[in-house]
Amino acid sequence: MRVLVTGGAGFIGSALVRRLLADDHDVVILDDLSTGFEENLRGVDVPIIHGSVTDPESVSRAASGCRAIVHLAAVGSVPQSIIDPIGIFDINVRGSLEVFEYARREGAHVIFSSSASVFGTNPENPKTSLSWTRPMSPYGSSKLAAESYLLSYAACFGFPALAFRFFNVYGPRQRPDHPYAAAIPRFMGQALLDLPVTIYGDGLQDRDFVSVGLVSSVIAEAVRGTVSSDVPVNMSTGKQTAIIDVAQDIIRLSNSTSRLEMRPAREADIRFSQGSPDDLMTLFPNAVDVSLADGLVETMDWMRTLAEAGDLSPATLR
Questions:
Q1: What's the pTM value of the predicted model, to 2 decimals?
Q2: What is residue 244's predicted lDDT score, i.e. its pLDDT?
Q3: Residue 244 half-sphere exposure toward CB, CA atoms < 13 A
């Protein structure tokens, strides 16, 4: 099957592309390389169309002949969405609509990466697919809008669709050195350079960490079986881990001399985030994630290759 992966040069996208190729799919990538890197695709022989999902011509060219589209392309930063809410809307909502418009015309199966940030201020834990949503950031709002558009398009126009609400995905190829880097890669980069490991807030925020291996295997299975759902599905484990505990584990794992440095909490930072995996397990009963401990070891092994190659800059990690 020919499959389009938007954002395929990104951290999650590049893992998924490898998995789809292992399943003998014909894969094409659409990526503007604003947050993705061709380096992530080293050793992978797939066509990359350099373009934005906001450009209908690029979407049509990349998706031509594809029976499935995995739409990962997005700006994924809460802080950036607060700085530039219009820009986030343009890419995350209008760009998604361009993808869904193509699927409407051609009847392609669409798998979309939404986010746990749609739940926002909802204190319920674990959160289910039917838990109420109230995003705290323009980023969360953009994901909620896009998933709503997808499911309404699928209902109105009859193509198969599946929206996953990603919780905290981590793993190899997740860069630590940009201003809005996720916690795990940033902690690892800081620890490997013996820099202070910086935590925003008190560190007691709980997160549901999901390995990129689970994400890519589940999506590949969804592509293979043309799996659809009329409600969003949590990509989660149902387990909670405090940010401060992860930071301390990473310092020990890296044999670092780093110390924790507490900084003021960030705006729109969700306090507790745990997702019920019940719907995920109903659709994908064979889905099994690695333990967080094992996942951190695998991720640290990759991060060490960056450190050993001199590809971690103290200036971008402080």
A1: 0.96
A2: 98
A3: 12
Per-residue model confidence (pLDDT) at position 218: 98
Tell the burial category of 186 from Cβ atoms under 10 Å away from its Cβ (0-12, 13-18, 19+): buried
Q: For tokens 């930071």, name the residue.
A: 247
Give CATH superfamily name and number for 2-169+210-235: NAD(P)-binding Rossmann-like Domain (3.40.50.720)
Helix (H, G, I), strand (E, B) or coil at 97: helix
* Distance from C-alpha of 62 to C-alpha of 47, rounded to nearest angstrom: 9
Structure tokens at 104: 């409407």
**Is 153 a known active-site residue?**
no
Assigned superfamily of 170-207+239-274+290-317: UDP-galactose 4-epimerase, domain 1 (3.90.25.10)
Model confidence pLDDT, tens digit, residues 32-71: 999 999 999 999 999 999 999 999 999 999 999 999 999 9
Of the candidates 176, 182, 194, 196, the one whose C-alpha atom is nearest the C-alpha of residue 261 is 196
- Say if residues 235 and 168 touch (Cβ distance below 8 Å): no
Q: Which of 102, 139, 153, 170 is catalytic?
A: 139
